Amino acid sequence: MWSDNFLKILRELGIEEIYVEREEGREELLRELYNSFKDCKACPLHKNRTQVVFGDGNPYSEVVFVGEAPGEEEDKQGKPFVGRAGKLLNEALKEAGFKREEVFITNVCKCRPPGNRKPNRVEILTCIKYLNKELEVIKPKFICCLGSTAVEGVLGRSYSITKVRGKVLKRKEQRVFITYHPSYVLRNPREYETFLTDLKTLKRML
Ligand code: SF4
Fold first, then answer.
1. For 83-130, how does the pLDDT look when each residue is reduced to its tens digit (9 = 90+)?
2. Which residue has its alpha carbon closest to ligand 1 atom 2?
3. Of 26, 77, 142, 145, which has the maximum CB count within 10 A?
4. Ligand 1 mean position to 75 CA, how many Å?
C-alpha cells in the first residue's frame, strides 16, 4: 500500500482513482496452510484448546502484527485479539492511522495455553513453523512483535523488551519492529501513550 503522503500528491495531481493489479492467491495459500494444521497435536497445547486460532486480516498487508498465543475469548471465537487486549489494540491501531481490516494479525503459538500462561520454549519452537509459513505467504515489509514472546518466536532468542521496544531489528531480509503486548498495556495503562507512539512510528515507516 502507499503512504498517505504519496496518496496526497496523487490527489493534488487530480488522480482520484487507481487500479491495482496485485498478485493473487494469498488467501488460497493461507487457507491451504490452515487446513494443513487445523488438527495439529504437535505440542501439549492441543489438549486444552477449543480450536486452533489462525491469523486473521489482509494477506496483502505490509505489516503483520504478532502476539503471543490465543486467550480465552480467542480460543472461543477462533480469531486472534478479540478479547480485552484485542479491543485495546484496535483502539490504538485506529488512533495510529491503521485500519484493523487492512492489517494482518497472528500469534507465535496458535493454541491457547492453560490459564493463559506464557507458552514455553518447546511450544514456541514447535509452533513457529506455522508463523514462518504465514510470513512466507504474506511477505510483509514489517513484522511488528507485540511483547517478548513474539520477539522470542520471531527472532529466535530472548531480549529484554525494555531494551528493544521501539527499535527495528533484522530477521533475514525482513524488518522487525518491537512494541509492548496490549495485555501489558492493559495492566499498565500509563504505557498506552508509549504503545501508541510506537504504532505511529511504525505507520510512518511503512
Ligand atoms: S500450539 Fe501450534 S504446535 Fe502446538 S498443537 Fe497448537 S498448532 Fe500445534
1. 999 999 999 999 999 999 999 999 999 999 999 999 999 999 999 999
2. 127
3. 145
4. 13
How does residue 5 score in pLDDT terms, banded at 50, 70 and 90? confident
Using the atom order of ligand 1, give the atom closest to the CA of residue 109: 1
| Greatest Cα-to-Cα distance within the chain, rounded to the nearest angstrom | 58
The full set of domain ranges for the chain reads: 25-205
Give me the architecture of the 25-205 domain, per CATH. 3-Layer(aba) Sandwich (3.40)
C-alpha cell at 92: 490504538
The count of C-alpha atoms lying within 13 angstroms of the C-alpha of 93, restricted to the half-sphere facing its C-beta, is 22
Instruction: Give the pLDDT confidence of 17-43 residue by residue, as tens digits.
Output: 665 555 569 999 999 999 999 999 999
Which pTM value belongs to this model?
0.88
Calculate how far, in angstroms, residue 205's C-alpha sits from the geometric centre of ligand 1. Answer: 33
Question: Ligand 1: which of 33, 34, 37 to mutate, most ligand atoms within 8 Å of CB?
Answer: 37
